[in-house]
What does this fold into?
Amino acid sequence: MSSTFRPQERGDGTAPDYIYTRHGNPVWEAFEEVLGALEKGRAVAFASGMAAGAAVLATLRPHKVVASNDIYYGNRALLERLGEAPESEVVFVDPTDTDAVLGAAEGADLLWVESPSNPSMLVADIAALASGAHDLGALLLVDNTFATPILQQPLELGADLVLHSVSKFISGHTDLVMGALVARDPSLASRLKEERELTGAIPGPLEAFLALRGLRTLAVRVERAQANASELARRLNEHPKVERVLYPGLESHPGYETAAKQMKGPGAMLSFLVAGGADEAEAVCEKVQVIQHMTSLGGVESTIERRARYSGEVGAPENLLRLSVGIENVEDLWGDIQQALC
Ligand SMILES: *Cc1c(COP(=O)(O)O)cnc(C)c1O
It folds into this structure.
């Protein structure tokens, strides 16, 4: 928790480790070491998930990006803005159709996907996209916020960059905003660090401390939240007031097989379509008492919201509710959902 450091004696004539926190801070470095080990790459911490995404575009300066049409709306807006520049092209495609993604990727520098995706829970075939991207000379970025490295390691599947909103499952307690990138190539990680230093997109040491503490329980939190989500998905799927459940752990989900191939489990995020329309879905959000009606995800408490209430959320059905399942007692959660669906 310091902005500046006395020069440290290292005795070997090399430069001191820490000078001023914008250049480097021991707390983020401890966090980066753990996240890098989990994702099997070099981690670089940022002020937020969005700062991490912006650093990718500023560092790579891609002329052409092919992006999934179902990604976090902030990243979509960032990419749309890039696409407005006269020298850039950004194409949005269905990430589950590998041929369509690669067909659009001729001349692209970067492919950007999220899997499972926000909020439609689409599953992209990461290994196939990575090898196709490399044949075309492009890099593949995977936003791994929903899966976390406990369930999916995109670099091991061939991706080049992993993006995290550390604000979500990684920190896990809905008490901070922070982001991270993990690169396979150490020289790309160094360039991302340089971008962070020059733009000042650094996390605070307190946030990094809390995120590191959160990482200690990531595996058990994910395990419990995923068990809850699997049970709720199964029960919601049979509920008469639910039109459809979007969860890669259900055999009826179109991404079930790909998810089973590349993930250790289907995760703790699910979406469901409430029978009726926007009003019926909104009513569920108003009636829940154990589940919190608020945005964001990945905390120990369950949160629910109707994504289409945001104008920036392109393509989300009016009656879609996104549920981030927490670590509460599953019967408390189910009882709450049942009374809210009445
Ligand atoms: C929240 C989120 C982001 C943005 O991260 P912030 O930390 O809010 O800036 C990016 N991707 C996904 C999938 C997210 O859920």
User: Anything to note?
Assistant: The chain has a mean pLDDT of 96.
